[in-house]
């Protein structure tokens, strides 16, 4: 998503662009996600609220957050940085940076839609964020106050009738929710990336199925080594999602990137009459329309890039969804796991690699890669063109976790 979006912005700017992907487009996390342009999600996950909630979640082995014991020690430095980023000062700064990137991404998406005739690939049906109780909504109030300050439109619903008017068929125990009308979904994230990729090639861009083995400084530029040899480029953009460090390590430019693995089940057409995107925040999953079907999923698992998936997580979310949506037909689903590329402060990396000005980086968008793709793409295009970017890039720089920030 990030690589194709940036490549599309660059080709629109008149550059000669080639994408190398070892598996073709939409093969990674971008192909199977929940498909939301979640512009109202400006509250970073690294937050005081998450620090309070996480210990309770960790008690349930199939709950919204899990750390595989064998991976816990490896992930410890990431968690320490996450905890530091959750303190009030860094949290407020990250929230402002998140809001700035969201505003830019919403504007960039509008422009992109015109360029790719993309409106037919969207659903503008809003989002219903569901709370278990009035107390839970009260606890979330600071977040909604921050959204109000950022100009985000929402309606607090405290009557079952008002909630069911937006989404019939919910369990009558659900009495508290917030509706964000400007939330947008794609009809299918895979179809969205493929459409963008087709438009990219129509405009003269090239896509080659190649596995990148190394990035090598080459004079003022950067060479890319693949199974077919070494090709020099003026500029290279690294947008390999959760796997970015594999190529950054030999350059001495690693960042504290980890993966939050997520799971879902896509049910066939007729599974449920879904009218809007449903978010069950305190249970860590969403229910969303994908194509003619319904996708149920989310959750976060820390287990690295190589451990096999634990599809019991997908089953557990489906079981919970059945409780909240009694009419949900949960038969015939397809399960999936994806690797969210996540930085400890919940902000992506966008900008030059430390010490390598011809290597640009765009990854680490965590839960928001689709949402922030168009804004990220425009920022990369600005950097390549030497235009001043439209937002302050300092919060997204790769070296922000180094002792001497670069
Ligand atoms: C369950 C779940 C639900 C989500 N829901 C949403 C949502 O509703 N909205 C939202 O905004 N975000 C959502 N996300 C997050 C979003 O999916 C990610 O942030 C986003 O897909 C990351 O995009 P990316 O392009 O950086 O990485 P990827 O999509 O993972 O792409 C990386 C690409 O790099 C290629 N690659 C890697 N290494 C190499 C190499 N050495 N050589 C060649 N190619 C290579 C891979 O083949 C892959 O195609 C969700 C994620 C999950 C897991």
TrEMBL record:
Its lineage opens with: Bacteria, Pseudomonadati, Pseudomonadota, Alphaproteobacteria, Rhodobacterales
Give the Enzyme Commission number. Answer: 1.4.99.-
Q: Which InterPro entries match?
A: FAD-dep_OxRdtase (IPR006076), FAD/NAD-bd_sf (IPR036188)
Q: What enzyme category does the UniProt record give?
A: oxidoreductase
Q: What is the designated name of this protein?
A: D-amino acid dehydrogenase 1
Q: Say which species the protein is native to.
A: Palleronia abyssalis
This protein's record includes keyword Oxidoreductase: yes
Q: Which residues form the FAD dependent oxidoreductase domain?
A: 1-383
Matches recorded under Pfam families: DAO (PF01266)
User: What Gene Ontology cellular component terms go with this record?
Assistant: cytoplasm
Q: Which UniProt keywords apply?
A: Oxidoreductase
Q: Give any GO molecular function from the UniProt entry.
A: oxidoreductase activity
